[in-house]
Write a structure and sequence with these properties.
Blueprint: H1 2-23, H2 27-51, E1 58-59, E2 66-67
Antiparallel strand pairs: 1-2
Helix pairs in contact: 1-2
Length: 85
């Protein structure tokens, strides 16, 4: 996913730059290209972060409720999270 996002962003910026140079690169084109580059960098960062998998909730071993893996106690039954399965 990250490689595909990077390829799409780089290709889009290259096409925008080629179009801007071909039609006359002015201050407006420079601003638009800078905004496109910033949004592209943001898209790549989001793709990288989502590719890591993140942290999923766990189930409490005592009651089966969903709890955060960082929580010291289950919010449903109060059991210590050492019982999290």
């Amino acid at each position: 996913m990250t490689a595909a996002a990077t390829v799409v962003v780089v290709a889009g910026i290259a096409i925008a730059l080629a179009t801007a140079v071909g039609r006359g690169f002015d201050a407006t084109a420079a601003v638009i290209l800078a905004i496109a580059a910033a949004l592209g960098a943001l898209a790549i960062a989001v793709a990288r972060k989502s590719g890591r998998g993140g942290v999923a909730p766990a189930r409490c071993g005592a009651c089966g409720g969903l709890v955060s893996p960082n929580a010291p106690y289950c919010k449903h039954c109060g059991a210590p999270t050492s019982h999290v399965a």
